[in-house]
Inverse folding.
């Protein structure tokens, strides 16, 4: 049996490994798009369930239960805020805003997942290419959203998350892994090699705290 949690986690870990190997950004982006869609659906479903529960409790006059249900309602807002926050961390600011990043994602997601018969199917094209930073940002957003929704991220995912924050100089946002000061100033190839070595150690069952 495969749960949605398992499906998301395993695809994200595979995407992290592709990233660490310096693979083509397009398959990383495509592989991450599936988990993104699942996480969004889970967030939306939880929001709707809580909303319906609040309406029922209000009709029944169950004030204490209504307060408790209302306290759980911000989960979707936290998820959405996390997505916008991560998109705003683009190193080279390829897009003018986080919302622009997600608007472009929707177009690329549809292109990678569907072929529109009305537009010629296989003759459709995508303007430009998918850059590494886009794939990196989408993958980070999914890892953060996965945790925001209450799932326990595995070591490869938390390592990738902290690598992304550290290479942006946001060392205070790293949790679970300490990256040495100056990590953000290293050449990208060196940071990728460091991440790859740490992932190999995790694969051997070695707990990783200090990195680089």
């Amino acid at each position: 049996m495969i749960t949605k949690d398992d499906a998301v986690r395993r695809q994200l870990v595979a995407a992290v490994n592709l990233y660490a190997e310096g693979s083509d950004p397009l398959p990383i982006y495509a592989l991450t798009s599936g988990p993104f869609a699942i996480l969004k659906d889970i967030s939306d479903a939880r929001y709707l369930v809580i909303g319906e529960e609040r309406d029922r409790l209000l009709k029944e006059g169950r004030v204490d239960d209504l307060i408790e249900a209302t306290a759980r309602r911000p989960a979707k807002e936290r998820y959405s805020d996390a997505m916008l926050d991560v998109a705003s961390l683009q190193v080279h600011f390829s897009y003018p805003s986080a919302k622009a990043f997600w608007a472009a994602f929707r177009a690329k997601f549809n292109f990678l997942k569907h072929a529109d018969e009305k537009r010629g199917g296989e003759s459709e094209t995508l303007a430009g290419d998918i850059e590494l930073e886009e794939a990196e940002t989408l993958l980070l957003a999914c890892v953060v959203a996965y945790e925001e929704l209450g799932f326990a991220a595995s070591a490869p995912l938390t390592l990738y998350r902290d690598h992304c924050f550290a290479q942006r100089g946001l060392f205070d946002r790293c949790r679970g892994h300490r990256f040495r000061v100056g990590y953000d100033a290293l050449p990208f190839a060196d940071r990728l090699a460091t991440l790859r070595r740490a992932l190999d150690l995790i694969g051997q069952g070695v707990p990783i705290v200090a990195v680089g």
